[in-house]
Amino acid sequence: QVQLVESGGGLVQPGGSLRLSCAASGRTFSTYAVGWFRQAPGKEREFVAAITRSAGGTYHADSVKGRFTISRDNAVNTVYLQMNSLKPEDTAVYHCAARNDYFGRYYTGARDYNYWGQGTQVTVSS
């Protein structure tokens, strides 16, 4: 099993940047594919970005492509989400999620993941 803890959220002005971190417990984090999702009040959970277990592949939702970048450092059991050019519509609770993976894939569906963090609030407002 793995436990996930997100950090790095906060209040930022439009156009600003934040870097979210997803710290994982466990010795086998390098065997987990990881994704970032977000949920705004009154809206459904939305896929943001995903990364393969070895960071050989990444995928970003169209709504964040060119502004957000997912990355990971397996040496410190952490996945990052660098968010630039933030917009008010990026305001949401951001969750990271993980699943065991033996195929080197990334996953974009919430149902593909079985471990979730509690989330970190990101608010973009002037």
What does the model show?
It is built from no helices and eleven strands. With 126 residues, the protein is mainly β. The strands form two sheets. Strands 2, 4, 5, 6, 9, 10 and 11 form a seven-stranded mixed β-sheet that branches. It has a four-stranded antiparallel β-sheet with strand order 1-3-8-7, with no helix packed on it. It is globular, with a radius of gyration of 13 Å. The mean pLDDT is 96.
Question: What are the main properties of this structure?
Answer:
single chain; 126 residues; mainly beta; 11 strands; globular
In short:
With 126 residues, the protein is mainly β. It has no helices and 11 strands. The strands form 2 sheets. Strands 2, 4, 5, 6, 9, 10 and 11 form a 7-stranded mixed β-sheet that branches. It has a 4-stranded antiparallel β-sheet with strand order 1-3-8-7, with no helix packed on it.
Structural topology:
Layout: E1 4-7, E2 10-12, E3 18-24, E4 32-39, E5 46-51, E6 58-60, E7 68-73, E8 78-83, E9 92-100, E10 115-116, E11 120-124
Parallel strand pairs: 2-11
Antiparallel strand pairs: 1-3, 3-8, 4-5, 4-9, 5-6, 7-8, 9-10, 9-11
